[in-house]
Amino acid sequence: MSSKLEAIGIAKRYGDSVALEPTDLAVQVGEFLTLLGPSGSGKTTLLQMISGLVAPSAGRIEIDGRDVTHVEPGKRGIGMVFQSYALFPHMSVWDNVAYGLRMRRKSREEVRAAVDDALAMVRMTDYAKRFPKELSGGQQQRIALARCFAYRPSVILLDEPLGALDKKLREHMQAEIRRLHKELGATFVYVTHDQDEALTLSDRICLMNQARIEQVGTPADLYDRPATRFAAGFIGHSNLLEGELDDTRGAGGEPILLAAGGRIPLPMSASVTPAMRHTLLVRPEAPRLVEPQSGFVDGTIADVVFFGSDTRVQLSMNDGSELTVRCERSLSPRVGDKVGLMWDPYRTTLLHA
Ligand SMILES: Nc1ncnc2c1ncn2[C@@H]1O[C@H](COP(=O)(O)OP(=O)(O)O)[C@@H](O)[C@H]1O
Ligand SMILES: [Mg+2]
Question: What is the pLDDT of residues 3-24, one digit of tens each?
């Protein structure tokens, strides 16, 4: 695999405040990479430095192995889509999409072919003669996408492009963006603060927190093997069980964590330090309900929440901590029931930070 795009030691400060610590990131050719993180974590700053709209305080940007740090935005071969569609209100849909191509001094025939193509791609051919104010928010965002795709940039940067749309339309547009990514074969760098959106869309996610990268990996990497407490908490629901190691190991030689009022076997490979507190991540889908006293930990069902496809059971553990467990509806758990919990230790993750 080769890198389409590389940020090398890229950093940004505004006076005394750090918008982005020195950061390295490589995006592969044709990849869909998402910058995910809470508001203010530096996502837009990183994206804008890739685009050239913001000048870095340090470091450099390479595209196709070429240093473009001092190349102006229009000459980087990049397309951009933002949350605000910024369509020209006095121009028809067709002219909005043609604008960038005309600026690039393409021939009439080339412009016509590219605009028709781009409108077809976002399924807006029938709206070519309308004006932006005659379109819904979702339709306007399609036009903004078409305008960007029309000149076929090999890198497309999208900053919360679906942020202004309601949930249903957002989900529909996520599927559209996936399809368009496949059709275009371009490299996408996408910004969102929405974990579900990131999990749905991305080949890889770059999780950001407090002006730096927390973890980079596939959606499954981040969900199954979060590197830090922050990563575990930001993606998916997390039960974090805190405790210390038991002096004696389990029957199979595995380390045992004393937490949630029970003895919890850890993966044999877990790197553990005696006399230190450890945090174990147990996703809600890992445990199964068993008879009291026959699992690793015991608790009482405090609440049962219906989620459509499954049920979330809230448990009050014997040491007072709380745990959320996903369970099949057929088990019909009831508030007040005493239950035990058991799971495959290899489905849990010991967190170090
Ligand atoms: N033009 C600017 N001047 C001063 N501070 C800025 C500017 N742009 C961004 N910042 C600060 O940099 C940090 C990162 O911002 P940003 O990259 O926009 O975060 P995100 O996109 O993840 O919400 C924030 O603390 C923000 O206030
Ligand atoms: Mg932002």
Answer: 999 999 999 999 999 999 999 9
